[in-house]
TrEMBL record:
<dbReference type="GO" id="GO:0005737">
    <property type="term" value="C:cytoplasm"/>
</dbReference>
<dbReference type="Pfam" id="PF02824">
    <property type="entry name" value="TGS"/>
</dbReference>
<dbReference type="GO" id="GO:0016887">
    <property type="term" value="F:ATP hydrolysis activity"/>
</dbReference>
<dbReference type="InterPro" id="IPR027417">
    <property type="entry name" value="P-loop_NTPase"/>
</dbReference>
<dbReference type="Pfam" id="PF01926">
    <property type="entry name" value="MMR_HSR1"/>
</dbReference>
<keyword id="KW-0342">GTP-binding</keyword>
<dbReference type="InterPro" id="IPR031167">
    <property type="entry name" value="G_OBG"/>
</dbReference>
<dbReference type="InterPro" id="IPR006073">
    <property type="entry name" value="GTP-bd"/>
</dbReference>
<protein>
    <submittedName>
        <fullName>Predicted GTPase, probable translation factor</fullName>
    </submittedName>
</protein>
<keyword id="KW-0547">Nucleotide-binding</keyword>
<dbReference type="InterPro" id="IPR013646">
    <property type="entry name" value="YGR210-like_G4"/>
</dbReference>
<dbReference type="InterPro" id="IPR004095">
    <property type="entry name" value="TGS"/>
</dbReference>
<dbReference type="InterPro" id="IPR012676">
    <property type="entry name" value="TGS-like"/>
</dbReference>
<dbReference type="InterPro" id="IPR012675">
    <property type="entry name" value="Beta-grasp_dom_sf"/>
</dbReference>
<feature type="domain" description="OBG-type G">
    <location>
        <begin position="3"/>
        <end position="271"/>
    </location>
</feature>
<dbReference type="Pfam" id="PF08438">
    <property type="entry name" value="YGR210-like_G4"/>
</dbReference>
<dbReference type="GO" id="GO:0005525">
    <property type="term" value="F:GTP binding"/>
</dbReference>
């Protein structure tokens, strides 16, 4: 389980800056549940309030980190480089682009909201490129990619399915399994696209419409409206928000990278997602650096509330991929594991996860011998729940086995 967040965008919009900022963590997590082997993979964190605050305890995280009552939970980040017109046909990085894309369960689409990069990523005068066009362009590339997979050998496949009476949904699911499309994704896409149940009756327009709906359920996204610090970005942002169907988060990736680097060097105190920072070692900062920090404070943090990078990650994981964080414990009195570590693990699980699934997620044996679960509340009260109880974000839960 877990969630892979893909960072995608045409060249020069600030994708690498976003990726570098997001993966420069204020904390090292010793034990996260995935390995990153490619240079374009990294570990980012979502930020959520740690229950240690409400419970008034000191936590000792193992698979995540806690700073000042903020729990940082690792997620895998993939830099999906190579989005250029025609990427779905193998232009640019082509197949590598599609491979990376395949793995992403949610996308952060970085666009240059100042409108100063053209379709191919070449600089142009600020305001001349309409940011919503970038969104349409990525949608087209994704739709064509999915439609291309469907079209391969379509007629024969459709005929065979019809002869052998294999349900359309099954054929389609099999076709798209390689890009992580589930049976329920296929069903809801078929319904939304209103396509015939007999594949031999599909027109190319049906394939297109269906591909579009598959993209909408399978590659949901958040737009990072980057370079929000540049003049004319604000006006573009308003239009962008009106024109697209996705959450739009104004970001200044460059500011986030500068702040994380300064914090990393101990020059300032700043946590990703904060609305301000505190200078710790003014004597070590040059006038230029001080000016840059002041610019960030005035033009970005005060105006927008944060640099937006952490918010984009949080919204992608919590709002769009619909994940929650749950804290399993073995000792419900001490809120600890068997070694006495308090609130050791923060698990990212899909919304709607039932207690039984959590038990299996911890260990098959625990799932098999599940008896009941105890939800521990900050006011000291307990709630005993059965296996089909749905967990909620922030739950601290003890699984009892028989
Ligand atoms: N003003 C401003 N500039 C930014 C911001 N983020 C990135 N940039 C600048 O935009 C330029 C492109 O940034 P990159 O991160 O290299 O862009 P990219 O999308 O990864 O580009 P490729 O590596 O070519 O794919 C660089 O000069 C960055 O410094 C931002 O938030 N505001």
């Amino acid at each position: 389980m877990g969630v892979q967040v893909g960072i995608v965008g045409k060249p020069n919009v600030g994708k690498s800056t976003f990726f570098a900022a997001a993966t420069l963590s204020p904390v090292e997590t010793a034990d996260y549940p995935f390995t990153t082997v490619d240079p374009n993979q990294g570990v980012a964190h979502v930020r959520t309030e740690c229950p240690c605050k409400a419970f008034g305890v000191e936590c000792q995280p193992r698979n995540s980190s806690c700073i000042d009552g903020n729990r940082f939970v690792p997620v895998e980040l993939i830099d999906v480089a190579g989005l250029v017109p025609g990427a779905h046909e193998g232009r640019g990085l082509g197949n590598k682009f599609l491979d990376d894309l395949r793995q992403a369960s949610v996308l952060i689409h970085v666009v240059d909201v100042s409108g100063s990069t053209d379709e191919e990523g070449r600089p142009c005068d600020p305001g001349t490129r309409e940011p919503a066009e970038d969104v349409r362009f990525l949608e087209r590339e994704l739709d064509e990619w999915i439609a291309g997979i469907l079209r391969r050998d379509w007629d024969r496949t459709a005929k065979r399915a019809s002869l052998e009476k294999i349900p359309a949904a099954e054929v389609l699911r099999e076709r798209l399994a390689g890009i992580g499309v589930s049976a329920s994704d296929v069903e809801s896409a078929m319904e939304r696209a209103e396509v015939p149940s007999d594949l031999t009756k599909w027109s190319d327009e049906d394939i297109r419409r269906f591909a579009r709906e598959v993209r909408r359920v399978n590659k949901p996204m958040v737009i990072a409206a980057n370079k929000i610090d540049v003049e004319c970005a604000e006006e573009n942002l308003k239009r962008l928000e009106e024109e697209v169907e996705y959450p739009v988060v104004p970001t200044c990736a460059e500011a986030e990278l500068a702040l994380r680097r300064a914090a990393d060097q101990g020059l300032i105190r700043y946590l990703p997602g904060d609305s301000d920072f505190e200078i710790l070692q003014e004597e070590k900062l040059s006038d230029e650096q001080l000016q840059a920090l002041e610019f960030i404070r005035e033009k970005v943090l005060k105006r927008w509330g944060s640099t937006g990078v952490q918010e984009a990650l949080n919204r992608a994981v919590f709002d769009v991929a619909k994940m929650i964080v749950v804290y399993p414990v073995e000792n419900e009195n001490k809120l600890s594991d068997s070694e006495g570590r308090v609130l050791p693990d923060a698990l990212l699980l899909p919304e709607g996860t039932m207690v039984r699934e959590l038990a299996y997620n911890i260990h098959t044996e625990i799932g098999e011998s599940f008896n009941r679960a105890i939800l521990v509340k900050p006011d000291g009260s307990r709630e005993v729940v059965g296996e089909d109880h749905e967990l909620e974000h922030g739950d601290v839960v003890k699984i009892q086995t028989s």
